[in-house]
């Protein structure tokens, strides 16, 4: 059962990585045409964190498992994992910058919070690496770095939802674009799904001290399956946000027209 859940998780992760790369590249192209900073930050952030960085980290984990099963050293997997981590962390910094300049461009506390989160992320990660984290050793520093990775989507979600509520109020009196309003909701849901995936995939590590060894495989199965659901949810929200099909746009516009009738 663990193997089946693992396969579903890998498939969902592959879909997430490909979608993050596709959306990131599309936004980078838009940035080159318009010169607007938000598109560039978000595009490079998604490509670096969710696409290349996370993709390399998962590839390294799978390679490391295969190497351990064959009794080989895992230096190559550790190197790939380290590169993936660096790309992922850079992407997180870009995403934090995106949140600041889009939602809080004139707010001092937001700029300071982004800097603090960046410093904590890199400090925790460097200590994690120094104590053999790339070779599978779990340290407290891992949770320090994960605390930033697993909290910044909450900030993005809160800001997006606040803007959605404002746009929704304006929409009722015809002062907002229904598709733009919907995009804030979709980004809120994408951030929520990302937040869920980050923490649930780490559930086996979190509950290990409190669960009998015999029960850990069951916890792992559940966490992988739920993470797969959240990962696919994130991909779906990203896709609808940036590549909404005509039927979806028509549905949003029709719903808005009906509410005003």
Structure description:
This protein has 261 residues and is mostly helical. The chain has one domain (2-260): Rhopdopsin 7-helix transmembrane proteins (Up-down Bundle). It is built from ten helices and no strands. Helix 3 (75-103) runs parallel beside helix 6 and helix 6 (152-171) packs antiparallel against helix 7 (178-200). It starts with a helix and ends with a helix. The model has no long low-confidence stretch (mean pLDDT 86).
How many helices?
A: 10
Q: From the alpha-carbon coordinates, what is the Rg to the nearest angstrom?
A: 20 Å
- Strand-residue fraction? under 5%
Q: Characterize the largest beta sheet: strand count, sense, and whether it forms a barrel.
A: none
* Outline type: globular
Tally of extended strands?
0
* Gross CATH architecture: Up-down Bundle
Structural class category: mainly alpha
CATH fold-level name? Rhopdopsin 7-helix transmembrane proteins
Order of helices and strands: HHHHHHHHHH
Total tally of structural domains: 1
């Amino acid at each position: 059962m663990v193997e089946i859940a693992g396969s579903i998780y890998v498939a969902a992760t592959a879909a997430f990585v490909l979608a993050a790369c596709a959306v990131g590249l599309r936004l980078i192209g838009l940035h080159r045409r318009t010169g607007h900073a938000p598109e560039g930050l978000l595009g490079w952030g998604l490509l670096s964190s969710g696409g290349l960085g996370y993709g390399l980290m998962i590839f390294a984990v799978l390679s490391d498992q295969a190497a351990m099963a064959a009794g080989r050293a895992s230096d190559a997997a550790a190197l790939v994992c380290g590169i993936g981590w660096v790309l992922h962390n850079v992407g997180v910094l870009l995403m934090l910058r995106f949140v600041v300049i889009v939602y809080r461009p004139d707010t001092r506390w937001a700029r300071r919070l982004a800097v603090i989160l960046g410093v904590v992320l890199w400090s925790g990660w460097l200590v994690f690496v120094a104590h053999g984290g790339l070779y599978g050793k779990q340290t407290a520093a891992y949770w320090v770095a994960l605390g930033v990775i697993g909290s910044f989507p909450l900030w993005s979600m809160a800001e997006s939802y606040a803007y959605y509520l404002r746009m929704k109020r304006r929409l009722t009196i015809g002062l907002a674009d229904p598709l733009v309003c919907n995009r804030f909701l979709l980004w809120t849901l994408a951030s929520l799904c990302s937040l869920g995936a980050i923490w649930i995939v780490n559930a086996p590590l979190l509950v290990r001290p409190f669960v009998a060894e015999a029960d850990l495989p069951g916890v792992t199965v559940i966490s992988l399956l739920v993470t797969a659901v959240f990962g696919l949810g994130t991909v779906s929200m990203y896709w609808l946000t940036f590549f909404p099909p005509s039927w979806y746009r028509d549905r949003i516009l029709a719903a808005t027209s009906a509410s005003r009738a």
